[in-house]
Amino acid sequence: MAASPETVRNFLNALSRRIRPVFIDRMESWSAYAQIREMMSGDLQAHDMAYICRREAEQHYESVDITESGLERAHPDARIFSVQDVTAGEHLGRLYIDPYDRESKRGGWNTLLGRSGLLRVHVDQNNLTALVESQSRGLDKLVYLVGSAIAPTENAPSLLHYQQLQQLLFHVGRAVQMLLSRSPYRDIAVPWAPFYASDWDAMDMFPAFVQFFLYKPSLLQSLSSPHLKSGATISDEQANNICLALSRSTLWESYRSLFWSDFDLTIFEMEDRKQKFWLDIYREMSREYFPFKPDRNDYHPCSFIPIFGLQPYMGMYY
Prior knowledge:
The chain has 318 residues and is an alpha+beta fold. The protein has helices at residues 5-36, 49-60, 162-180, 186-189, 205-211, 217-223, 236-249, 251-269, 278-289, 305-308; strands at residues 79-85, 90-100, 110-115, 118-123, 128-133, 142-149. It is globular, with a radius of gyration of 24 Å.
């Protein structure tokens, strides 16, 4: 957690000075790509950016779309792993992994703490409550990693889209976070809804750190399997191009999040909330950040999904 709003403001100002020139330069590249490759005659609008950023990045680094290549996949059984700290010789718990989607399965990617490593046991003497190791009762920590990857077939392994690989890395980080937690209470180890009074600030820090492995060429090579037909592995140049393309395609979301952070902090810093309406502030800052002409009925803060769409994140996102 930042020590003060001034610390956050200084961070946002420094980040804005670095990323805003890149965004302005990238807008020229996006516009040129849209006109030449997508046959778009008008100016780019905010609703074009998610598609154009991804397509321009793929074209820039010569990515190959294999969506229609006809690869077949099937469903395997779930796996159970015993997780141990080899340096201390300590058993951390069991990890249940059910990675593949199927008709009878509900939900998407998720990681759940089924049972903590310590149990709260009532002690009669002096009416106290004590913590007793679960191992003494034959119970250890259980963590469930549930995925929705497309299952393999008899002739081909499960091939992950990069967004699925991002999800997998994030939830592997969450599983490690839960396995290493020393909290005897599930709702403190990783905050759960509706426990909004818990400390949510760094909940996603380690999972996001693991997710960034995807943007490091050497780590991407380690995560990649040989080509299905030729058996060739990803070369250094290919891995570097893939990472550059993925990084390039995320600039729009990064810049938009920076804008939302600035807007969120600006509202927080207002001494008198009645001195200016929040939508007027949003429109002023939007003109400063973006070249798009807003529609009179645009209410873009409502697309700020982490704040407006996910209850646990209210009041803690930045």
